[in-house]
Amino acid sequence: MNNNSAFEVIKIVTASDDMPPEKVALIARRFAEHLHIQGYTIEQETDPSLINGYVIYSQGTKYDYSVAGQLSRIGRHLKTDRGDEKSGSAAKDDFSEIHRSLTESLADFKESPAMLFEDDELWEGESPEQEEKREKILSDFAKTSEVEQIGKVISVSDGVAKVSGLENCVASELIMFSETSYGIAMNLERDSVGVVLLNECRDVVEGVMCHRTGLTVSVPVGRGMLGRVVDPLGNPIDGKGIIRSTSKRPIETPAPSIVERSPICEPLQTGITAIDAMTPIGRGQRELII
Question: What percentage of the chain carries pLDDT values higher than 90?
């Protein structure tokens, strides 16, 4: 990433105020060198909810290498229920099955433990060996930490949030405001994105930060969905527990072609003689009646 502006803000949020300003400045300098940022200013904040580690904001991107961020990513990863891969049937709700599912899910979580920059000699040294090792750590940092493109809510009106900063956002992408507030990117403009909110989202107000997910809106599919009540994202709201499903499908997808569909061969009786006589309707048929 290259920066052509005169000054770029590098914001570092730490879990505690124990980190001295010199250490913060050193991390910011090495981070700026890695991203080829020429001129920058440093902002430092403290957020105890991070538990440990820190989060870096730069060039409209969030680099999350906090313990809280990693725990959140593990939690989202575990929400994807694995089901019974052998038979495809719903898995049993017993301890052994839950233990197996958690073990396999954690094994699939491809992320190393959160790394803390504690080696002052490494970051202060200028030798070729130290520089090479430092560049490798920063590269690994960018790869394994959660990197998000962030935006800021400009206004909210009639269930639509106008967001700035999401330069690479694509149409129908899922935008996350918080763990419970989501929206769909619909109107892509030059300087802003119109995001349709998927629920009440009372916490989405002017000035709130949001970020891209890189995903389109998908919902679970399969027999586990039968008889369940879900929200727009497919999350259960009927109090009957999680939905056991092994796959998801996007809500915006082309319909099967006529050749792929089952033939309509059974009539649907409406019970109104005039309609049944003039407009025969087949069971499973789409029919526009005005």
Answer: 6
